[in-house]
Amino acid sequence: MIQLGTRWLVGDEPPSRLPQPVIDAIYEVEGELAEQGVAAAGEWSWTLTWLEGKPVVELDDETVIEYDPDADAAVVTPGS
C-alpha cells in the first residue's frame, strides 16, 4: 500500500492517521516554540513522509520526529 505524505501549518491539526506518540511530540515541539517566543504558528509547516511504512515528520527548522513502533514512541531530533 502506498501512503502519501502531506503538509500542514504549525498550529493546525496534525493528520489523524499518525500514531498518538507522534501527535503528542508535534504538540510538544509546537509548545516549546511558543514558550521560546518563536512566531511559527501559521508561518512554519510540518511535512509528513513515510519511510518503510513509518511516519517521518519534519518541521521547517529541520526538527524531525520519527516513530519507533517497537517502543510505541516518538523520537525527536531538534533542528537548527
Task: Describe the 3D structure.
A five-stranded antiparallel sheet has the order 1-2-3-4-5, with helices on one face. The N and C termini lie far apart (34 Å). It is globular. It is of the alpha+beta class and 80 residues long. The protein is built from one helix and five strands, in the order βαββββ. The longest helix has 16 residues.
- State the total count of DSSP E strands: 5
Quote the average pLDDT: 93
> Which stretches are poorly predicted, pLDDT < 50 over at least 5 residues?
none
Question: Please, how many helices?
Answer: 1
Approximately what portion of the residues adopt beta-strand conformation? Answer: 25-35%
Largest sheet: 5 strands, antiparallel
Question: What is the strand arrangement across the widest sheet?
Answer: 1-2-3-4-5
Cα end-to-end separation: 34 Å
User: Shape from CA axes?
Assistant: globular
Radius of gyration: 12 Å
Derived from helix and strand composition plus strand pairing, the structural class reads: alpha+beta
The share of residues in helices is: 10-25%
Reading the helices and strands in chain order gives EHEEEE
